[in-house]
3-ketoacyl-CoA synthase
Amino acid sequence: MSREEHLLSTEIVNRGISDGGSQTFSVRVRRRLPDFLQSVNLKYVKLGYHYLIKHGIYLAILPVLVLVFSAEVGNLSREELWRKVWDSTTRYDLATVLSFVALFVFTLSLYIMSKPRPIYLLDFACYKPSDDLKVTKEQFIELARNSGKFDEPSLEFQKRILESSGIGDATYVPKVIGSSENTATMKAGRAEASTVMFGALDELFEKTKIRPKDVGVLVVNCSIFNPTPSLSAMIINHYKMRGNILSFNLGGMGCSAGIIALDLARDMLQANPNNYAVVVSGEMVGYNWYPGKERSMLIPNCFFRMGCSALLLSNRRRDYRRAKYSLEHIVRTHKASNDRAFRCIHQEEDSQRYKGLKISKDLVEVGGDALKTNITTLGPLVLPLSEQLFFFGNLVWRHLFGNKNAKGNNNNTSQLANNKPYIPDYKLAFEHFCVYAASKTVLDELQRNLGLSEENMEASRATLHRFGNTSSSSIWYELAYLEAKEKITRGDRVWQIAFGSGFKCNSAVWKAIRRVKKPSTNPWLDCVDRYPQSITQ
């Protein structure tokens, strides 16, 4: 416990006056994210450099061949070169020249063939539910109370969670959560899925002018609700897509599954040229509604809200001019081999046989470790060379000499300060950050650990406040916010990072191909001018 004291923070809440006139208060103890940048594992840095140079052998060979050829023939006149090529008695016979040319062409071909196809994001859409589904925090508690499924202590607990959640008074929930009936039915789940998925896809096809029959790859991710036929089959049936479409349905993969679905779509586009891919990410709130009394399972009720995103990808080079972004990198981290990580977000039944998601107290620590691994692997791919040199040199120095110095100077605080690692400045690698809006506490800790500014976190905090936690689609509501604010200019790099059950942490890096003007359809258009001021109100 003494080793974990630095991970705990305290806050005085619920101040008041007792019946006897004395002051009363409660002390809330929270567990912070570990300072993961203080303990970087060298093997993940190595993995990042492996991703960086996996095609570098061809780039290294080509200049060598060109230099050798130039050195050999650079001092010869055209007549001398011609005579040496065709005269078999001289040094340069035809077979030598042809062999060199063949080697050059072969190496160049290998490089071109091994180089991945560019993947473009033509556009994306985020579903905005109708106003009759909009609720304030008070209305949310009243819906829960009217359902008759919760006792007063459970309602009071959810109310306290909402007060410090960072969620505003204009989020969306399905009406079914206010019903006294069972909400986790296939009928209710399919109804909500149809509403959010088709709403996002209708907008996407309208914006891009792409026919559903032109789509060659479809990937759908939804963690909890996985009916038969699948959600991807529902979309194919609704839009009458073609019979040879490559469709995939990802289930049970948590709030970071949107980037996993994106990675799968990218792989399919690499293997199938001249194609379009659609990725749909969402979660069904009503189907995941927990009606019991277990507090660790009531937490998801307070945060998750309705939402869905749909994006259109292309590997056609002619789509470059109409595309908004190009996909630069995807880095995925999976910690399920660790038992604590595997069970920190776990779907199970409580003592009353009610099914829900149980949130472990280890979540913050497990999440910090997964995040540390992910950003350490991502660093060599995105950081400027100067940052990489400082970071890598400092890391190697600490691994070689840091432990010795620490052992010999256990009580010397100045020595420990000198051993402090160099923390890369990720603001030099990205212009915009889309951090998964899980909760206010998580965003606060990520901002502190990564050294991000309020402006860097603006999109995430605004999304949490306006739309709540929409699971795997949250990072797309955040990018929609940046577009509505007209903050995206040509060449800007956007970092999307999400994490979820498993435990997984995944990153996607995009580069803006052009300046993105304010879209004509966007879920933020009616309220974007109220942000970021509304976050602090």
The first strand starts at residue 8 and ends at 17. The mean pLDDT is 83. The CA atoms of residues 79 and 85 lie 10 Å apart.
